[in-house]
Amino acid sequence: MVLAAHPNPTAPVLSHFSLEGKTALVTGGSRGIGLEVVRGLLEAGASVGFTYSSTTPDEIAALTQALSSENGGRRGLPRGQAAAHVMKARNKTRGSIIFTASVSGILVNVPQTQAAYNASKAGLIHLAKSLAVEWTDFARVNCVSPGFIATEMLDVHPKAWRDKWFSMIPGARLCLAPELKGSYVYLASDASSYMTGANLVVDGGYTLP
Ligand SMILES: NC(=O)c1ccc[n+]([C@@H]2O[C@H](COP(=O)([O-])OP(=O)(O)OC[C@H]3O[C@@H](n4cnc5c(N)ncnc54)[C@H](OP(=O)(O)O)[C@@H]3O)[C@@H](O)[C@H]2O)c1
């Protein structure tokens, strides 16, 4: 098992982040963090498909049109496919799989009780490590673990909880979803060609104290 080498490591550094000619699939790409990941991958040059759940066909049509005008005709298309099978089938493909875990996979959030969520995110981080070893031949597997990101998922929680969380962030503010897209482009691209099994924590310092 050999981890694929960078195709041109001495090239200027910004070219390492280019996703020209690459194909990406984002699960849950119709809003929140996933939508900004779709945007980031498109902006870096990839062709991007994404999955969604409750978004209506009209909303999806408007979204793909907006993504197309933002990216010179390159569109994010709603679709699904088992990505790892495709990567494996294409011998010597330098695939990159990125799981969205959470700081909840590292610590126990308070004041809420959410053992199942925390355990699932911890499991995801270890799944990434395990697959990074088992799939070395055809894909790198890494995680991004966001802290508190301003999306609809956060809005549904009681204000008292949110006030408590915000008081615990050394960075003293929420992260905007577009602030995450650079991390995903980095992990998707050759800029991180020797990184696999890692968990990139993006949390304004939340997990540090
Ligand atoms: N927001 C945070 O502070 C935060 C922090 C740490 C980790 N995370 C993690 O980041 C990820 C995204 O969170 P978010 O805040 O961006 O959530 P969000 O705004 O609620 O977006 C969720 C996305 O997932 C899609 N989705 C939901 N159920 C699905 C299903 N069964 N099949 C396919 N797509 C489905 C939704 O599609 P529809 O719009 O069509 O329903 C939507 O595109 C989650 O794994 C979350 O645990 C979030």
From TrEMBL:
It comes from the Eukaryota. The keyword Lipoprotein does not apply. It holds the Pfam family adh_short_C2. Keywords: NADP, Oxidoreductase. The keyword NADP applies. GO terms for molecular function: oxidoreductase activity, acting on NAD(P)H, oxygen as acceptor; oxidoreductase activity, acting on the CH-OH group of donors, NAD or NADP as acceptor. Belongs to the short-chain dehydrogenases/reductases (SDR) family. PANTHER family: BENZIL REDUCTASE (PTHR43008), OXIDOREDUCTASE, SHORT CHAIN DEHYDROGENASE_REDUCTASE FAMILY (AFU_ORTHOLOGUE AFUA_6G13830) (PTHR43008:SF12). This is Uncharacterized protein. It comes from Emericellopsis atlantica.
